[in-house]
Amino acid sequence: GAGVSQSPRYKVAKRGQDVALRCDPISGHVSLFWYQQALGQGPEFLTYFQNEAQLDKSGLPSDRFFAERPEGSVSTLKIQRTQQEDSAVYLCASSLSQGENYGYTFGSGTRLTVV
Amino acid sequence: SQQGEEDPQALSIQEGENATMNCSYKTSINNLQWYRQNSGRGLVHLILIRSNEREKHSGRLRVTLDTSKKSSSLLITASRAADTASYFCATGMNSGYSTLTFGKGTMLLVSP
Question: Looking at the DSSP assignment, which residues form a beta bridge with residue B20?
Fold first, then answer.
């Protein structure tokens, strides 16, 4: 597609519920990143994929967070047993290579609200 | 944790004026990037400057980088109401794969 597509755009979850957030990167983009952005803050890194390999998951805040990209294209970020502190905008970004030459293309994000 | 810090936190100007935003960071970098974020939307990549570059231009944007002071500035000339957005600097540490570390952003308001 023309850009990075994320769905759903908004998600309201009850505390304790599991959620799955989807990211469709630009076709052919090797690198895929997930970021978490709290209100009034800059994005914070969660995890990085190069094709289907998850090379860095150091930013995942707890073992309730899990991400996958099984075929090297679409990625899913799953949050189990959601807590109120998980409320944030979750941004996905992709890049043709490793981003150092081109920058990253971000999706519009999924706004997660845990009630 | 956030490495970059933008200054000012908020900036309000009139259309046609220039807007300057600054970014300071803490550790050595490979590149520094500026992004724009409109309210409720994703980030849009504006410009990337490498650590061996001192200045870069793109349209009405001018970015400078001073690695000795670990700082960068973004200048938007002849601002327009459509430039109203939050602006973030982000640093990349490595020449290969590199996560970006973002600052908290500068909120720019351009009034007609």
Answer: B75
